């Protein structure tokens, strides 16, 4: 099962095969806004659909992932209206109108981890959930096992441990479950989101060190905003979810800090200045910690205007010689890898073994592309080391991974004629990425198939 979408105003509908990026003629000095948080958008959409009553969610991210989330919910009978960056969701109180549907979720990993539980908690229904080829290669077995242990009935239609899934609505009984946090925090989040609808309270005991614990905190915070009754300790080793369904809410989502980090890095690379305006500096989004690493590399960082604005100023020369653990902010591992090319000494990133299982093997993608343009990289079990050098121009293969494309696009701010293949892959989280990049003065040229 495969689908594509052409949604006017949602993402860039003009297909280009490549973009060519060249440095600005002037020193970068930009004042920017970035779109809403991907992490919060899909959590809010699914929780609002489960809730009782009509919710208003402002500041949503219009991306491929949120598009497929909305389409899947509509296929279940949820009424959803979009007005600019607001979405109005008529919650179903845990009961789906369409009791038998095929649901397609594209490459939306968060939806793939959150939707099965939202289906399994229903008392009646039977659905098949399909994903695109990329997401179907990623593991899903843990969340299926957790849901079935709580009384769900979820099975694999083809290959064990992977999409597509069959989910029968039989309700969840609740109880106690032991869950591992070492593979993906999204499995635990998916279990949490469904648990308020279990017949009894659900106790989740988390073993192993959690990959990106901040994202579980974002889930818990969103659940509480919609009225869930929870108890949990500081390290989230024990979480209790009581049988108290969600109620509708009017909420405003934060901007996406992961996207903002590419523009912070742009200032660092070019020795320029970038101000991002709509940043919540009290956020639970972990990628704000990226600013601490930029400071260590010699950048100036200031928080302005009541904690809602960040200014980053790049140094004449980035410092190196560090070993950084990026486990909590692994989405920025590739970003720091690109900065390392221009530092005084090599930089080693550890704690990111799990990024080999994302949209691409990101460690391999970084290493292969940098080596192809003359940069020495060593891959490690849980990370990599990048050595400073003078890269040549070249064509970058993003492996259909938005993080790879956005990180390597930064190279074009200092190296002429960096070409990114398949630039539309950024629409997974930030369809406007290249448009925002061009607003900083960086020369972005769109190339159609056959014009290379």
Automatic annotation (TrEMBL):
Main location: cytoplasm
Every Enolpyruvate transferase domain range: 27-437
Enzyme class at the top of the EC tree: transferase
Pfam family, one: EPSP_synthase
Subcellular localization(s) per the UniProt record: Cytoplasm
EC number: 2.5.1.19
Catalysed conversion reaction: 3-phosphoshikimate + phosphoenolpyruvate = 5-O-(1-carboxyvinyl)-3-phosphoshikimate + phosphate
Active site (UniProt): 331 (proton acceptor)
InterPro entries, per the entry: Enolpyruvate_Tfrase_dom (IPR001986), Enolpyruvate_Tfrase_sf (IPR036968), EPSP_synthase (IPR006264), EPSP_synthase_CS (IPR023193), RNA3'P_cycl/enolpyr_Trfase_a/b (IPR013792)
One of the GO biological process terms: chorismate biosynthetic process
Binding site for phosphoenolpyruvate: 38, 109, 138, 186, 362, 403, 428
PROSITE patterns tied to this protein: EPSP_SYNTHASE_2 (PS00885)
Any one GO molecular function term: 3-phosphoshikimate 1-carboxyvinyltransferase activity
Residues spanning the membrane: 333-355
Keywords: Amino-acid biosynthesis, Aromatic amino acid biosynthesis, Cytoplasm, Membrane, Transferase, Transmembrane, Transmembrane helix
Alphabetical list of CDD domains matching this protein: EPSP_synthase
Pathway: Metabolic intermediate biosynthesis; chorismate biosynthesis; chorismate from D-erythrose 4-phosphate and phosphoenolpyruvate: step 6/7
Free-text function comment from the UniProt entry: Catalyzes the transfer of the enolpyruvyl moiety of phosphoenolpyruvate (PEP) to the 5-hydroxyl of shikimate-3-phosphate (S3P) to produce enolpyruvyl shikimate-3-phosphate and inorganic phosphate.
Subunit structure: Monomer.
Family, as annotated: Belongs to the EPSP synthase family.
Protein name, UniProt field: 3-phosphoshikimate 1-carboxyvinyltransferase
């Amino acid at each position: 099962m495969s689908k594509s979408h052409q949604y006017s105003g949602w993402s860039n509908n003009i297909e280009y095969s490549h973009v060519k990026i060249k440095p600005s003629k002037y020193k970068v000095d930009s004042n920017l806004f970035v779109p809403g948080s991907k992490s919060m958008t899909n959590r809010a959409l699914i929780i609002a659909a489960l809730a009782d009553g009509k919710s208003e969610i402002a500041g949503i991210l219009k991306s491929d992932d949120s598009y497929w989330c909305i389409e899947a919910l509509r296929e279940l009978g949820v009424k959803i209206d979009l007005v600019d960056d607001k979405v109005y969701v008529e919650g179903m109180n845990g009961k789906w109108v369409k009791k038998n549907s095929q649901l397609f979720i594209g490459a939306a990993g968060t939806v793939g981890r959150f939707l099965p539980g939202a289906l399994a908690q229903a008392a009646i229904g039977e659905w098949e959930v399909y994903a695109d080829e990329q997401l179907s290669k990623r593991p899903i077995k843990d969340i299926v096992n957790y849901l079935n242990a709580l009384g769900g009935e979820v099975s694999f239609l083809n290959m064990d441990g992977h999409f597509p899934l069959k989910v029968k609505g039989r309700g969840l009984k609740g109880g106690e479950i032991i869950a591992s946090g070492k593979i993906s925090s999204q499995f635990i989040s998916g279990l949490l989101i469904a648990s308020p609808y279990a017949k009894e309270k659900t106790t989740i005991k988390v073993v192993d060190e959690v990959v990106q614990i901040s994202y579980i905190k974002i889930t818990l915070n969103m659940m509480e905003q919609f009225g869930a009754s929870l108890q949990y300790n500081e390290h989230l080793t024990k979480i209790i979810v009581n049988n108290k369904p969600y109620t509708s809410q009017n909420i405003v989502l934060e901007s996406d800090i992961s996207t903002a980090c590419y523009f912070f890095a742009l200032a660092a690379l070019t020795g320029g200045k970038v101000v991002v305006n709509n940043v919540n500096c009290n956020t639970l989004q972990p990628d704000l910690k990226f600013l601490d690493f930029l400071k260590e590399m010699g950048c100036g960082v200031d928080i302005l205007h009541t904690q809602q604005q960040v200014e980053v100023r790049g140094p004449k020369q980035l410092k190196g010689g560090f070993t950084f653990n990026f486990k909590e902010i692994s989405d920025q591992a590739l970003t720091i890898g690109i900065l390392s090319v221009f530092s005084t000494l090599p930089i080693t990133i550890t704690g990111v073994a799990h990024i080999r299982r994302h949209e691409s093997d990101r460690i391999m993608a970084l290493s292969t592309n940098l080596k192809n343009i003359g940069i020495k990289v060593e891959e490690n079990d849980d990370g990599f080391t990048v050595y400073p050098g003078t890269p040549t121009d070249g064509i970058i293969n993003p492996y259909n991974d938005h993080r790879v494309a956005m990180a390597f696009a930064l190279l074009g701010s200092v190296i002429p004629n960096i070409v990114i293949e398949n630039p539309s892959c950024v629409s997974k989280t930030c369809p406007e990425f290249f448009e925002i990049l061009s607003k900083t003065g960086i020369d972005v040229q769109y190339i159609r198939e056959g014009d290379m």
